Amino acid sequence: MSAVAKMSAPTPDHLTGYDLLRNPRLNKGTAFTEAERRARGLEGLLPPAVINIELQVARRHAEIAALGDDLQKYLVLSDLQARNETLYYAVLMSDPATYMPLVYTPTVGEACQKFGHIFREARGVYLPITARGRLKELLSHWPEQDVRFIVVTDGERILGLGDLGAGGMGIPIGKLALYTACAGVPPQHCLPVVLDVGTNNQALLDDPLYLGLRQPRVRGEDYLAFIEEFVAAVRRLYPKCCIQWEDFANINAVPILARYRDEICTFNDDIQGTAGVALAGIYAALRLTGQKLSDQRFLFLGAGAAATGIAELISLAMAREGMDITEARRRNALFDINGLVVTSRTDLADFQKSFAQNQTPVSTFVEAVEAVRPTGIIGVSTVPKLFTREVIAAMARINERPIIFPYSNPTSRSECTAEEAYRWSDGRAVFASGSPFPPVEIAGRHFVPGQGNNVYIFPAMGMALFATEATRVTDEMFIVAAQAVAEQVTEKDLAIGLIYPPQSRILEASLHVAERIAACIFDQGLAGVPRPDDIGALIRTRVYSPVYQE
Fold first, then answer.
1. Is the peptide bond before 192 cis (omega within 30 degrees of 0)?
2. 104 catalytically annotated
3. CA 155, 158, 161, 162 torsion-angle sign
4. Would you say residue 348 lies in a domain?
5. What are the Cα distances from residue 180, in Å, to 93, 231, 266, 466?
6. Domain boundary pick from 240, 264, 288
7. Is the Cβ–Cβ distance between 333 and 368 less than 8 Å?
8. 348 shares a domain with 205
9. What is d(CA 452, CA 405) in angstroms, rounded to the nearest whole number?
10. Nearest CA-CA partner of 153 in 113, 190, 123, 194
11. For residue 443, what pLDDT is reported?
């Protein structure tokens, strides 16, 4: 923590007693000093011992480690966030590799599925479509005036779990916690939002504890008008705010991004963040395969927004190195429920057509591997076990070092496990997954699977946007971010198969990435502040540190 500046909101002098203890941003719990207790009416309301934050963190570590169930750990952390925000982030930032899987994927998936059954404390803003015409009023009820980041979902495509309606709130809450824990974005500037347009999940509609609107999802012009009103309200209330769209279905995710990306500061993490982290993995993987990006050919299992987002960013990165963009797109093939995406198909969406192959239709994925002969396969299907032994063996026959990226999450949706990829390729696979897998021993060799988690991209993007007050987010920023992530992978990491920086040093990694993105923002003329001589210093002075204010 010593490398970053301390930032915290001033304590309002009028808060005393229980009001102070119940304010999560200002509460110190047992760390209030004796002098503070006398001055703020806290004597008798706390046990007499004064415990510093280091001991408070140790106490929470012990409590959480003693729990056997990850959802219980998630709930303990959620309760801590609602009670003492500084201590919450101190715990997360003290051991990010341990706590990231608890506050986000894979545990957050179960939390969203059970949201109505485990609900404890209101957090964020819920905007139901029944409140159309009043969204600015509802948003204004949030107590913070300077919101810089909104992560918003309509709950239709939560991870690989589908339509969870209002239960999708767990995603914006978790993502914004990682903005702070992984890149130091001050939490007071972050707002989680759910746009509740109903749900088509009958099990939720039948559940008496479901917390969202009990109606089918609204579609069409009414839905688009609702989105438009939301964006307008954000722009009026929070003019410096970036909107991150999260877990929208493809039918809405792609047009929403296209509608607003050139008008406001916004990005879609499922499309652009996933693309950035995938490209980062590819850049690092090429150091193991000894090849160039222009030598690559990728086959995607899945043809939705995530797949086309990754394919497009790879294509733009290839074009950046001199390849014709049309040829680059031809090197990224898609496979969906109807087979290989080829030019003769009549069921393609506009966003898929750029990647259609001029080939004979193929109906199975292993046949697609044989037809396309890719150097890498990337799974974003959310359908588990489709990277079969036959598929991995075919990839290993075609390539000396096959790139195998099953990116679907949570873990239950992964296209294959790390052990399967390594074992079926005789230890030759260059592997990364969307959810964490344990180390693998194959024929006396030790492999540490990398997790292609968007956490390497979106928190750093957030810090760069926050520090520069950027007005737009561009694809070029995600290419720069991918390069900055990959260049932090050491030879020691590569020797054990790890193609992402260890999550134990995610803060340092994120600040490096943020600095590179910020430089790109200044280069593109998109910053809202003057360019400083030292961009790294600008980033570091804006970083939140979880320490109690004196």
1. no
2. yes
3. positive
4. yes
5. 9, 24, 18, 12
6. 264
7. yes
8. no
9. 8
10. 194
11. 82
Give the Cα separation of 475 and 316 in Å (integer).
8
Task: With respect to residue 507, please indicate whether it lies within any of the assigned structural domains.
Answer: no
215 has a pLDDT exceeding 50: yes
The two three-digit tokens of residue 32, written as one number: 């209030």
DSSP string across 449-471 = -EE--GGGTHHHHHHHHHHHT-S
Q: What is the pLDDT of residue 320?
A: 95
Rg of the chain over Cα atoms, rounded to whole angstroms, equals 23
Give the bridge partners for 36, in sequence order.
none
- The token duo for 212 is 């969202």
Encoded tokens for 127 = 């905007």
Whole-number Å distance between alpha carbons of 230 and 228: 5
Q: Which of 175, 238, 260, 548 is catalytic?
A: 175
Q: Is a pLDDT exceeding 80 seen at residue 380?
A: yes
Is 175 a residue of the active site? yes
Residue 184 in tokens: 């130091």
Q: CATH code at 72?
A: 1.20.1370.30
- Residue 376's DSSP bridge partners are 298, 403
8 Å CB contact between 341 and 372 = no
Q: How far apart are CA 87 and CA 62, in angstroms?
A: 14
Residue 524 located in a structural domain: no
Give the tokens for residue 445.
């060799």
The two tokens of residue 97 are: 């590799």
Query: How is residue 18 written in tokens?
Result: 């229980």
Q: 99, 104, 210, 422: which is the annotated catalytic residue?
A: 104
Residue 513 to residue 529: CA distance in whole angstroms: 19
Number of H helices, E strands in the chain: 25, 14
Closest CA to 112 of 74, 142, 150: 74
How far is Cα of residue 292 from the mean position of the Cα atoms in its chain? 28
DSSP reduced 3-state for 145? coil
Give SS3 for 403.
Answer: strand
**CATH number for the domain harbouring residue 425:** 3.40.50.720
CA 315 to chain centre: 22
Contact 284, 496 (CB under 8 A): no
Q: What is the pLDDT of residues 146-163, one digit of tens each?
A: 999 999 999 999 988 999
Asked whether the predicted pLDDT for residue 5 surpasses 60, the reply is no
Q: Give first-to-last CA distance, the chain, whole Å.
A: 17
